[in-house]
Structures are given as structure tokens and as C-alpha cells.
């Protein structure tokens, strides 16, 4: 009798163990899948930010081909193509995304950005027009401002630049673009103000420093502004100022500034030397 009871207990235990084994394996599989998913996300983020652009393009081309129904991988491929200096290919990928139900307003803004990089201003405007006015982001208004600039719609451009600068904590880039817009309109005082403001947010932006000198030189302000600069930057800014003076017919001032640039540069300043020789200096 005891043998029969023991056998029944053993059989019940084996049944319980058999019942537990599949669920335990399923839990293990789910855990491994979660780990793999996290690893994939981390690798994707690394590829998008710090990896070599060409390697990132190769990686996302491969994984997006393996998972053709994943729009996020295609978005990452497009971003990588932009980083690699291939906006035409990025636009092709983004056009494919915007043709699907999964398309978002951000996708259309990114497509407009890629189109601007390929000089397709008409296409960029068409994409931005598809974005509802309720979608208010820094990138959207930055691009709207650039498109308005391309059409010489200065009033609209100024409005969009102002909105964009208020939608980011790092407005140096858009302020520099806005200043360059003013420079092309020959509003040199307005450009000077915007380049100066850009440098308050990013004191190391050499493009804004150079543009600031251009704006001042156009007003015949031939002294360097009081801004942070290295010795090499000082020489290069003097050179920019010299060329501006020469272009405006102030040859004596230009020669003096070229000489200052040559003497200031910590190394041989070939471009300035050639310019001075061309003027007979």
C-alpha cells in the first residue's frame, strides 16, 4: 500500500516538474530576448552618435534590410546618411518612409532638411507645407526660415528665425544663420548684432566670429571686436577684415591689416603673404 502511495507521489511530482519546465524555459527566453533588445538599442544609439559615419551607414543598411518593416531602422539609416554627407540617399530613404502610414511630422521635417542639403528648395517647401501648424519644433522653424530666405521673403524669414531661436537652449547656430541672412540683405548693423548674440551662447563658434568681422568691415569698422579668440583666430580674422577693406577700395587699410595678420599668425601665413605681395606690399 505504501509502495502504491509512494508511486503516486512520484508520478505527481514528475507531472508537476514537467508542467514547470516549459514555463521556465519561456521565462528564460523572454529574459534573453529583453537583453538582446537592450543590447540592440544600445548598439543602434552608439552607431547613430559616435561611430564612424561610413560604418554607421553600413550597419543600418544591413539591419534595415533584415527588418524591412521596422521604420525606426530606416530613420536611423537616413540620419547616418546625413552624417556621412549623403543627403540625396537620405532623402530617398525618407521619401519611402513618408509614403507609408507610419510617417510622422518629424519624418517630413527630416525629409525637408535632406532636400535643402541637396538644394531642392521647392521640394523642401512642399514637405514643410504638409506639416500642420500645430507641430512646433526648433528644426521645423529653422528650416521654414531657411526656405523663406531662399525666396527672399525677409519678413517671414525673420519671424521664423525668431521663433526657432526661442525653441532651443542652444540658439547659436540659428542666430548665426539669421545674421548671415541679414548680411546678404546688406543689413550690416542687424547682422553684427545677431553674430554678437550668437557668440554669447557659443564663444568658440569661429564661423560667427568671421561673419561678425565681415559685418563690421562692411560698415568700415576695421578694428577687431572684443571677443575671445586664439592667436591663430586673431590672424585669420585680421585677414578677413583686410580682404573686406580691399574689396571696398580701402587699400592702405587693407595692406596694414594684412601685415598685422602675417605678424600675428604663429606660423607662416601663406594666404596673407600672397595677398600682400599681390598688392605690392
Task: Give a verbal description of the structure.
By secondary structure, the chain is mainly α. Among the domains are: 136-226, Serine Threonine Protein Phosphatase 5, Tetratricopeptide repeat (Alpha Horseshoe); 229-281. 77% of the residues lie in helices and 0% in strands. The chain has 14 helices and no strands. Helix 5 packs parallel to helix 7 and helix 13 (251-264) runs antiparallel to helix 14. The radius of gyration is 30 Å and the shape is elongated. The protein starts with a helix and ends with a helix. The relative contact order is 0.04. Keywords: Signal. InterPro entries: TPR-like_helical_dom_sf. This is Tetratricopeptide repeat protein. Pfam families: TPR_19. Residues 1-18 form the signal peptide.
Structural class: mainly alpha
Under the CATH scheme, the architecture of the domain at 136-226 is Alpha Horseshoe
Count of beta strands: 0
Q: What share of the residues does DSSP label as strand, in percent?
A: under 5%
> What is the global morphology?
elongated
CATH superfamily of the domain at 136-226: Tetratricopeptide repeat domain
CATH class designation of the domain at 136-226: Mainly Alpha
Portion in helices: over 70%
Question: Spans of 5+ residues with little confidence (pLDDT < 50)?
Answer: 1-22, 31-36
Radius of gyration: 30 Å
Topology:
Elements: H1 2-49, H2 53-66, H3 71-83, H4 87-98, H5 105-117, H6 121-129, H7 138-150, H8 154-166, H9 172-184, H10 188-201, H11 206-218, H12 231-247, H13 251-264, H14 270-278
Protein name: Tetratricopeptide repeat protein
Pfam families: TPR_19 (PF14559)
InterPro entries: TPR-like_helical_dom_sf
Amino acid at each position: 500500500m505504501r509502495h502504491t502511495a509512494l508511486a503516486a507521489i512520484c508520478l505527481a511530482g514528475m507531472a508537476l516538474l514537467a508542467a514547470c519546465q516549459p514555463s521556465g524555459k519561456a521565462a528564460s527566453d523572454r529574459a534573453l530576448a529583453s537583453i538582446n533588445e537592450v543590447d540592440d538599442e544600445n548598439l543602434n544609439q552608439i552607431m547613430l552618435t559616435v561611430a564612424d559615419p561610413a560604418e554607421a551607414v553600413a550597419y543600418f543598411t544591413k539591419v534595415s534590410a533584415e527588418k524591412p518593416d521596422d521604420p525606426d531602422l530606416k530613420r536611423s539609416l537616413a540620419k547616418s546618411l546625413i552624417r556621412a554627407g549623403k543627403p540625396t540617399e537620405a532623402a530617398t530613404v525618407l521619401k519611402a518612409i513618408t509614403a507609408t502610414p507610419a510617417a510622422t511630422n518629424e519624418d517630413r521635417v527630416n525629409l525637408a532638411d535632406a532636400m535643402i542639403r541637396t538644394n531642392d528648395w521647392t521640394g523642401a517647401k512642399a514637405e514643410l507645407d504638409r506639416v500642420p501648424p500645430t507641430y512646433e519644433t526648433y528644426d521645423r522653424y529653422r528650416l521654414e526660415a531657411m526656405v523663406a530666405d531662399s525666396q527672399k521673403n525677409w519678413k517671414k524669414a525673420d519671424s521664423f528665425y525668431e521663433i526657432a531661436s526661442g525653441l532651443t537652449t542652444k540658439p547659436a547656430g540659428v542666430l548665426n544663420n539669421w545674421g548671415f541672412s541679414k548680411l546678404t540683405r546688406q543689413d550690416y548693423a542687424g547682422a553684427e548684432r545677431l553674430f554678437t548674440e550668437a557668440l554669447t551662447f557659443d564663444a568658440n563658434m569661429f564661423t560667427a566670429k568671421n561673419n561678425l568681422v565681415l559685418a563690421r568691415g562692411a560698415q568700415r569698422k576695421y578694428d577687431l571686436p572684443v571677443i575671445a579668440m586664439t592667436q591663430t583666430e586673431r590672424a585669420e580674422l585680421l585677414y578677413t577684415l583686410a580682404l573686406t577693406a580691399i574689396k571696398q577700395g580701402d587699400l592702405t587699410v587693407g595692406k596694414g591689416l594684412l601685415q598685422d595678420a602675417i605678424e600675428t599668425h604663429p606660423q607662416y601665413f601663406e594666404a596673407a603673404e600672397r595677398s600682400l605681395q599681390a598688392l605690392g606690399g
